[in-house]
Amino acid sequence: MTATAAPETRPRLAPGVVTGADYRALVAACKAGGYALPAVNVTGTNTVNAVLEAAAEARSDVIVQLSNGGAQFYAGKGFPDSFQAKVLGAVAAARHVHLLAEHYGVCVVLHTDHANKPLVPWVDAMLDHGEAHRRATGRPLFSSHMLDLSEEPLEENLATCARVLERMAALDMSLEIELGVTGGEEDGIGAEHDADQADNPKLYTQPEDVLAAWDRLSPIGHFSVAASFGNVHGVYAPGNVRLRPEILKGSQDLVAAERGTAARPLDLVFHGGSGSEPDKIAAAISYGVFKMNIDTDTQFAFAQAIGGYVFTHETAFRHQIDPATGRPTKKHYDPRAWLRAGEQGLAARLAEAFDTLGSTGRTLAG
Questions:
Q1: pLDDT digits (tens, 9 = 90+) for 39-73
Q2: One of 113, 172, 209, 295 is an active-site residue; which one?
Q3: Looking at the domain 16-302+349-357, which fold is it?
Q4: Of 67, 225, 261, 332, which is least surrounded by CB within 10 A?
Q5: Domain locations in the chain?
């Protein structure tokens, strides 16, 4: 009689936006199951809906996130107050996701991306709305926020993170921090020329800094670490980016050894995942990465699909009446047609990401 492998035991969660204990259970399930979730930066309802559609089709959970610029665009570039646009755009997007996510039948992590020192007030303002939402509904508005203070001295980075995490922990939210500098530029955060410095030591997080973050933050609440191991934002020519995921293992091992925790105590995040080699992605996941950002690839997929549609129907974007046939071209220049093409392009690229990260068919929604 041939022995069969024991079935994978996973928690079952209600579909929709996951927060608090459900969010932590989802992170733990990713690490225990050896897979990760793609994180997609969204800019409007089209990109949000495409992400939810792709996740439902793949039966995978997913991470929806907004940068400060994406949130501002969501509110409208013409909004008279740019700071309030970043705040209210994020809030509006969050409410949109809360309303629809459960009906797509998957679990969704709702997150905001890089906030450097000038953008700390943005996070504080979103927490003002989060506190109001918690009072009204009993749940946080977002699953987590990110502070990227990697360009500041370590003590200042951790002190600010500790202050914000105290406020977030009271809402049962999680904080994502960055240690070491992810190269390239992401919506105004960072500098593109950094990505060309493949041997730049700032692109590699020091395990001792991670241990310091553990000591400072773990007594306060849940946090994850965007640790840099040579990763950069954007896609670059081969040889320009040298990933060293073993650095992640060094940080995990140091915290476990020095503080007597279980193996892989850190919840790790992979920024700048677009264009990475599959073997490096697999290694990073094995060392405790549960989240990988793929904004560059999904942006291109959305744009490429729309570009292809426009090239195919070029006449419709020049003439309301086709001069060759005399027929109206409205059905081709209707925004619903070409925006739908963009949604389908993004969803197709995201389906690849689910497969690469091993999350296809593994939703915890039940």
A1: 999 999 999 999 999 999 999 999 999 999 999 99
A2: 113
A3: TIM Barrel (3.20.20)
A4: 261
A5: 16-302+349-357
